[in-house]
Every structure is written in C-alpha cells, then in structure tokens.
Design a protein that fits this description.
Chain A: It is found in: Nucleus, Nucleolus. The complex is a heterodimer of chains A (about 725) and B (about 260). Chain A is mainly alpha-helical. Chain A contains 27 helices and eight strands. Chain B is extended. Classes of the chains: A mainly alpha (about 725), B alpha+beta (about 260). The structure holds guanosine-5'-diphosphate and magnesium ion.
C-alpha cells in the first residue's frame, strides 16, 4: 500500500534562484583558468565542458523536480481529485509539462552550441559561444518563472495537507456549516480544530485519530456543505465532497435540531437528500446534535417525523442517534456505533471476498466422537466444593438475591446477566471474603501487610527450596570462603566432566600407542631417507610458522596487475621468476624446463587472443555437432525432442536461411566491440595507446580539474648569498 | 500534528508576542544600515552581482517615484483653455504647451531627414581572406594547401549539391551552416524566427557572396509569408530584406532587423 507523504518534496527554487544556483555551480565545479596560448583543442574542451556541465546541472535539477511531484494519475483517486480541486489539474499538468519542455530546450541549446564550439578557432570565439550558450539556457529558465513559483506554492500547500490514509478505518463528519462537526471532532480526538460560531470556520479537511476496541481510527472533519448544485460549489465545499466520494468510511451526518446554526431542519433534510448518492455503500449515522438546547423528545412532532422519515427512506443501513457536544451526552455512543458499523462492514467484505477462501479452506473444527455413554464431569476436589458451599452460605446470609460466589472464577453465562447492575457489591464481598475466612492459605502479600508492610517484612523464599533433605533449606552458605567466591567452585556437572576427560585421555593413549606401532615401520627407511624425511618435516614446520607469524596479512596489498609478475624482493609472496622457479624445483630434484616453457608461451600470447581461440574452438565444435544433427534429422525425430520442439527448430532453421539470403552483407563474425569503429589494426593500436594514457590520468595524474596553486618562488628572493645581510642588500 | 495554515492558526489562538510590532519596525529601520554594511564589505563577483541587482532596484524605484510625480507634473497647458462657456465639441480639448509641440516636430523632422535606404548598420566591416578561411592541408604528405575551410557562419541553400569532395575548394562546415534567423520587426518590437531565403551581396568580395557567408551588417532576404505582411500594392509579401545585426559565429545564431 502506498503511503502518501507529500512532505519530503524538495523546495522548488524561483527562476532567479535557479539561474544563480546553476551558474554558481558551473563556476565552482569546472576549471577556471585558460590561456590563449593553450592548444586550441584544449581551449575548446575547456569551454565545451562548461556548456555541458551547465546543461547537465539544469537537467538534473529539473528532472528531480519532475520526479518529486506526484503524477495525478498514479496516486489514489481521492488525492488526485483533491489536487484537482485545490490546484486545478490542468494548471498542474501544464506547469510540469512546461518544465519538461524547458529541459528538452536546454538540452537542444547545449547540443547546438557545443557543436559550434567544435569549430571555434580562437579563445575569444569559444568564450563568446559559451557566454551565448549559458545566456540562452538561463533565458529558458527565466521564462519558467510563473510555473516554478506555482509549483513552489503547490509544494508548500501539499506538504501541509493532513497525512490522511485513504485505505484505513475512517469516520467522516459532514453536514451544513456550524452544526457541530468540529466540536465533535475535538471531543473524540486531539486534533484541536478551530471552533467558532460562524460558518466556514473549517476551510479544509482535518485529520485526527482516536482509539476504539484497541484499534486506531482515523477521524476526518470536513468543511460544511451548502445545499446547492455541484457546479456552484466552491473549493472549500468540494474538498468535503471529494472526501465523501472517494473514501470508504463510516459517515456521520450532523443535524442541528436547535436550528442555532442558521439553517432550518427542513433545509438540513434537503441537503441530506441531495448528497444521498454519495452515501451509497457507506455506513451512515444520522447524528442529531445540540440536544442540550432542544431535546429530541420535546421537538415538534412534525419535524421529528420529517427526520425519522428521512432516516427510513435512506435505507436499513442508517442509524439515528442523538448527541450533544456541550453536555457530552451520547458522544461516545455515536463514536462507538459508527465504529462498530464500519468494523462489521469491513469484516463482512473480507469474508465475502474471494481472498478469505484460501484461509477458510485450511480451517477445520473437529469434535471428538463420544467413546461411550458415560458422563465424565469435571473433577472438583472436596475441599474446594466445601469452600464453595461455605462461601455461598455466607453470601446468601449477606444478601438474599445473590445466586453464588464468583471469587476466583471467570464469569459464566449465568453470572453475566447480573454483572452489570451490581459490580460494586460483588467487589465489596470479595474484600470481605478475603479478610473473613481463615481457612484459606494466606498469600505472601497478605502476610507482608500483617507484618508491617513492604520494607519491613519480606517472604522467606528459602522455604520453597527443593532440596534432597528439607533440613538443608535454612543452612547458612557463605558467599566468600578463604578469600574465594564459593560460587566459582560449585559445578553440578563436575562428575560428568571428569568422565569425559578420562575418556579422552584413554583415547589419546590408544592413539599414541598406535602411532608408535607405525614408527616401527618407519625403521625400514635407510639413513639417507631418514635424513630427507626429517628435512622435509622441518621445512613444513618452518613454512607453517612463517605463515602463522604475527602481523600476517594486515597491510596494504598491491594488486597483482600492478605488482607485476616477477619476483619482488620486498614481497616474498609475489610470483617467482623463471630462474627462481627452476632453481627451487632443482632443489627438489624436478626438471622445471617444461614448466617454464609453458609459462613463457602463455605470457607471450595475448590473453584475449588466447580466450578467443578457445571460444572459436568451442564454437567450431558446436557447428559440427549441429551439422551432424541436420544430417541425421530423420533419425533424431523419434527420439528425445517433442514434436512441437522439432517443428519450431525446423521453422527457425528455414527462417535463418531466408534471412541469410535477404542480407546484403556477408555474415562473417563481427569485430571485437572494442575495435568496432576503427579502420584497421594500426588505428586500434593508437586507440589503445590513447585509452591507456587516459587511464593513467585516472590513476591520479594531475588534470585540468585539479585546481592547485603552486608556490611561486620569486627568483630574487631565493637565489644568491644569504649571509651577512647581502641577501637583503642587493 | 499541525495541519494547513498552522502558523496563522497559532497566531489566532495565542496571539503574537507583545513586542512583535516594535521588532518589525526596528528590523525595517535597520535594513538600510545592514544593506550598506554589506555593500561596503562585499567584493569580487558577488559585489558585481549585488551592485547590478541594487542598481536595477533603484532604477525601478526612481521610475515609480517619477510616475507618481507625473500626476502632479503639468503636461497640459491649462491656461490655454478658454474660460467661460465653451461649445460642447471643444469641451474635452486641452491646451498643449508649446514646448511639447516643438520637440515633437523636431523629432519628426529628424526621422524624415534620414534617407529611405538608411539601414541600421551602415557599413559592413571588411574581412580579410585569412580571417575568413583556414587553410586545409591535403595529400598523403599533407603538402598541398589549396583547400579552404570557411570559419564564419554560412547560408547554404536547400537545393545546393556538393561537388565531389575531393575537388571541393571551399568547405563550409555543416556545424556552421545557418538556416534560420531571429528577425526583429522594428515597429512591432517583436522577434520572429524566420527562414533565410538568400544572402545578398557582400561588398567585400563576390566570393563571400557566392559562399553565402553571414557576417554583421549583411543584407539577407527572409521568408515573411507567415507574418502576413502586405505590400503597398496589396499583394502578400513573402520575401523581405533584413540586416544581420550580430556576429553569428560568436553568438551561435543569426539576429537581424527587418528593413521596412
Ligand atoms: N449548544 C450546543 N452548541 C454546540 C454544540 N455543538 C457545537 N455547538 C456550537 O456550534 C457552533 C459551531 O460549531 P462547529 O463545531 O464549529 O460546527 P461546524 O461548522 O459543523 O464544524 C459553535 O459555536 C459551538 O459552540 C452542542 O452540542 N450544543
Ligand atoms: Mg468546522
């Protein structure tokens, strides 16, 4: 579900500000020093960069603006209609459209001017062109003054729209002005809406929240609606209409029976009838307000009938309630009824929807079938039933009408009937029961109060210790013994641990013996071999130690490409040179010439060429396979592939043949993508060189963008003798 | 949560602080001093921009003051109107001061004295060949230098066909070709973007005329059929002369005034 938050739209700068922003950014983010003595290509690129940078900045800013404003077709219909009434959809779209056009215009200007700069033959000309380009782009921006200021106003207003969720549980108040909608809103929420005794105090939608049944309810206060046709309604009323039309909610239609609001009951009924179509599919409560001034019962018979008829004709889904904001009579009843109705409707719609099906399918209630006819009742201990009896006696003594005690028990169906009228009494009795009977076990809390309250007496938890010998319970255990915390030496699993340790030791013993047996076999080696084995073992040990030496890998590592493949005396981990490899292998008595040869070969050939050759070989193999498949197509028909697949393959083959014929160009393999636009091998070489040069720059060489001021060494200050004052006296 | 006009609402509910008006008054009084302080301190590009803006503000201020004063200025010569009974058809006449009449006639005369064929820019600055053309060296050894590239903007007609590139002596780069001009109508004080039809003679050289080089002061013919102008004989004019008023190669566009 999308959450409508228009609060995080970035401010839209005014046209003048936008120009300032863009030009300042260009000035600060592009190099600023250029001289007529520079190579012309450098001068050109200097100015082209300025133009392109400006264009980029502008289009970035404008794109950000365009994306941050919501598209009216994408948001919830309620919001899009609200935007329509508040900001006028056409105007809104026009403004955004103009911004978009401005963006494309700026792009076009930049493209044209960059093209002109390419033919610039002097610094002056390039500069003039740049100036013209920036000027034209800024003019385009300045033309958007009206759109930009409009959009800024819209943004400001949107950011202050109430955060209203169109999909949640909602109560919506409507009615003529001054009938007490806002007062009711203030009663049930903390929205703090302005209430004044004149019409149109509330000029826009207000949102508040209230709680009912542990759920959060959104309450919407609307401006008053007058009874006239839709065309005549103004922006303020249209907001209320929009809310009514698009939100699925429980509607409270307010009526003022005291007629203090300045409208007769008849005109209020008329308004109800004229907006009745908007109440379709909604839960409707007609609220009769201000009964503190004019009670419902003493209302003139005629008017009362009028209202009752109105409710009747609007369908069975409508409820009539009376209320007063001043005496707070019926306020919560109205809220509860509206909430209940909406909740029931929402649950209904959920259940009737097809989504619930999948959940319902999985639900199953199983009743166990009776094994036999014996009735098995709950087993109540005798003491309990006795106690109950006693209690019943006591209570019946106190008040004859009481049926039974409920202390400690959840309310039952029979009890519930009486619960409402005598809650205070039953509480009284509970207190009495506690104090009165001595047969029941006292709780620790009671004991505490008896013995002086909290802080004076606390229960002794040692009583409840479950030890092998109950006598041990109250034994004193010191915390520190001989300067040691005895808790550190208590280990309930000590026996288990000891057993495990012993087992392990036994196993080790056995292994050691087995190894010793093998050692006996080692003796078959002669002296020389033994020495060699010892040497190998020593070497392994050294290598292992070297690897595990502290400070192992925690230092900057050069990538291999940069480090080079040859041995580096500062870095033992680098790859070995051919000589070193040969020498080392010789030490182990292995002939390394082949290995070195292979390495050389691999190094000589270009890795790309090698990979291509491998790929070509693979492709050739595939082709052969395909050809073979073609030839024995009939044979293959019966096997492996499905009929459809075979047909498809055949069709494809035919089509490819056709395509081949229709092509004018030969179907040779296309060139490497990196060499696509280049004439021949030599051009490719040059391109590669240039590219690598560019990359060198990337590695941190100084470029035009690096704005540095080197120390200017003045010759007369820095040359010559510096002793005996001659330095200053020249 | 504040909704809608929460600031105004707060003010309505709780009022403003007791010295709000006093603070406002002081702030506006201080503004001039703050401005002057800033103007004295600022330097560099910021100063330039600031002064430009201030200048504009002051100019508009002066203008509005003058406008207000104008009401008290006496343009009409009230004494010239005869006292007493005046026939109805003379009632709304005002006496016009002599000075006004004189100045108007002087202006009129000056306008008439100017020749009919006077153009806004009287002279086309002569352009030397080596400014106009860049030598392009050709041949595999780059030792031939007979080709020329035009460095100014040019107008190339729609139906122009290139010669074979190899033998083309003058190259007019496509990037510098102009098709349309921004033409200002001096009387309507509006500008239109119009197609260029022909480039008229360039006094410096026939060659430039043939190449259709566009430089400041040149006369061009533009397509005004969209404007719906009518000639004295009643026909709809579709081609009209205009003079180029800028250096197109420096501005990247052709600006011109219509000669009427
Ligand atoms: N006597 C009485 N006055 C009420 C009651 N509810 C609202 N009012 C008054 O009616 C006026 C308009 O109330 P308001 O809530 O602004 O009406 P809204 O325009 O429908 O929002 C205020 O002066 C309230 O004090 C009510 O139950 N009894
Ligand atoms: Mg209100």
């Amino acid at each position: 579900m999308p959450v409508y938050n228009f609060k995080n739209m970035a401010p839209v700068p005014s046209a003048n500000d936008l120009v300032d922003i863009v030009l300042t950014r260009t000035q600060r983010r592009t190099p600023t020093v250029v001289h007529p003595g520079y190579k012309i290509s450098r001068i050109r690129s200097f100015y082209m960069r300025k133009i392109k940078f400006t264009q980029q900045t502008i289009s970035d800013r404008l794109t950000a603006m365009l994306t941050s404003f919501p598209r009216l077709s994408d948001i919830h219909p309620f919001y899009s209609d609200l935007c329509n009434t508040l900001y006028d959809r056409d105007h809104y779209k026009l403004a955004l459209g103009q911004i978009n056009t401005a963006k494309t215009l700026v792009d076009a200007v930049a493209r044209d001017m960059v093209r002109m700069v390419k033919y610039g033959d002097s610094l002056y000309r390039c500069k003039c062109l740049k100036r013209a380009a920036l000027g034209r782009m800024c003019t385009i921006l300045k033309r958007q003054k009206a759109s930009l200021s409009y959009l800024e106003e819209v943004r400001k207003h949107m950011s202050r729209l109430p955060a209203l969720d169109p999909n949640t549980r909602t109560l919506l108040m409507c009615g003529l002005p001054n009938v007490g909608k806002s007062s009711f809103m203030n009663k049930i929420t903390r929205a703090n809406v302005d209430v004044q005794p004149y019409a149109f105090t509330t000029k826009s939608l207000f949102v508040g929240h209230t709680d009912y049944k542990y759920l959060r309810w959104q309450v919407i206060d609307t401006p008053g609606i007058l009874d006239h046709s839709l065309e005549e309604r103004n922006t303020i009323e249209m907001q209320a209409i929009t809310a009514l039309a698009h939100l699925t909610c429980s509607v409270l239609y307010f009526m003022d029976i005291s007629e203090q609001c300045g409208y007769t009951i008849e005109s209020q009924c008329n308004l109800f009838r004229s907006i009745a179509p908007l109440f379709a599919n909604k839960q409707l409560v007609v609220v009769i307000n201000k009964i503190d001034v004019q009670p419902w019962e003493t209302l003139e018979e005629e008017k009362r009938r009028m209202i009752e008829e109105l409710v009747k004709e609007s369908g069975p889904n409508t409820t009539l309630l009376t209320m007063s904001n001043v005496s707070e009579e019926g306020v919560s009843a109205v809220k509860n009824t509206a909430c209940d109705k909406l909740l029931a409707a929402r649950v209904d719609s959920r259940v009737s929807g097809n989504k619930v099906e999948s959940v319902m399918n999985r639900l199953q209630v199983v009743f166990p079938t009776a094994r036999d006819g014996i009735v098995r009742e709950a087993c109540i201990p005798e003491s309990v039933s006795k106690e109950r009896e006693r209690m019943a006696m006591q209570s019946s003594n106190k008040s004859k009408k009481k049926k039974g005690s409920r202390i400690g028990y959840a309310p039952t169906v029979e009890d519930e009937e009486e619960e409402d009228d005598t809650p205070s009494e039953s509480e009284d009795e509970m207190m009495d029961g506690e104090a009165g009977n001595s047969g029941r076990k006292k709780t620790a809390r009671e004991l505490m109060w008896e013995n002086g309250g909290p802080g004076v007496w606390a229960p002794d938890y040692r009583e409840q210790y479950d030890l092998a010998d109950p006598e041990w319970r109250f034994d004193a255990i010191p915390q520190i013994l001989d300067g040691k915390n005895i808790a550190d030496y208590v280990d309930p699993d000590i026996e288990e641990k000891l057993r495990v340790l012993e087992e392990e030791e036994e196993q080790l013993q056995a292994e050691y013996e087995a190894a010793n047996m093998e050692k006996m076999d080692d003796d078959s080696l002669d002296e020389m071999e033994k020495v060699a084995v010892g040497e190998i073992r020593d070497r392994i040990k050294i290598i292992r130690q070297y690897k595990e030496r502290p400070g192992g890998n925690n230092r900057p590592v050069l990538p291999r490409e940069i480090r080079g493949r040859t041995k580096d005396k500062h870095d033992e981990d680098a790859k070995l040179s051919a000589d070193a490899i040969e020498k080392r292998m010789e030490k182990y008595g292995v002939d390394a010439s082949k290995m070195v040869e292979r390495g050389r070969k691999r190094e000589r050939e270009d890795p790309r060429v090698r990979r291509r050759a491998e790929r070509a070989a693979a492709a050739d193999k595939e082709m052969e396979d395909a050809a073979a498949n073609d030839s024995d197509e009939e044979m293959q028909d019966g096997r492996g592939l499905s009929k459809g697949a075979i047909k498809r393959a055949k069709k494809e083959r035919e089509q490819s043949v056709k395509r081949e014929k229709s092509l004018a160009r030969s179907h040779s393999r296309p060139r490497e993508p990196s060499q696509m636009g280049l004439k021949d091998e030599s051009m490719a070489k040059i391109a590669k060189k240039v590219e690598s040069k560019g990359q060198m720059r990337w590695h941190g060489g100084k470029g035009e963008g690096d704005h540095t001021q080197s120390v200017h060494l003045v010759k007369w200050m820095n040359t010559g003798k510096k002793r005996n004052g001659t330095h200053y006296c020249r | 949560m504040p909704q809608h006009e929460h600031m105004e609402r707060h003010r309505k509910l709780h009022g403003r602080r007791f010295d709000a008006e006093e603070r406002d008054r002081k702030r506006t009084a201080r503004l001039a001093h703050k401005r002057s302080e800033f103007a004295q301190k600022v330097h560099g590009l910021r100063a330039k921009l600031y002064n430009q803006r201030r200048f504009k503000e002051k100019a508009t201020m002066r203008k509005t003051i003058a406008q207000h004063n104008e009401r008290s200025n006496k343009h009409a010569n009230d004494e010239a109107v005869a006292d007493g009974a005046v026939p109805a058809y003379l009632l709304d006449r005002e006496g016009v001061s002599r000075a006004k009449v004189l100045s108007n006639t002087v202006k009129q005369k000056r306008k008439e004295k100017a020749g009919k064929w006077e153009v806004p820019i009287p002279k086309v600055k002569p352009v030397a060949d080596d400014e106009m053309f860049k030598v392009m060296r050709t041949g595999s050894k780059k030792n031939k230098a007979w080709k020329r590239v035009v460095t100014k903007c040019t107008f190339v007609g729609d139906n122009y066909t290139r010669k074979a590139p190899k033998y083309e002596r003058f190259i007019r780069p496509t990037g510098l070709r102009m098709k349309r001009a921004n033409v200002t109508h001096p009387e309507l004080k509006t500008s239109f973007q119009l197609d260029i039809l022909v480039v008229k003679k360039n006094p410096s050289s026939d060659l430039y005329t043939n190449l259709g080089v566009l430089i400041k002061g040149m006369i061009i013919e533009v397509n005004v059929s969209d404007l719906g102008l009518v000639t004295t004989s009643g026909k709809v004019a579709w081609g009209k002369m205009a003079q180029v008023t800028n250096n197109p190669e420096l501005d990247g566009c052709v600006n011109a005034v219509l000669l009427v």
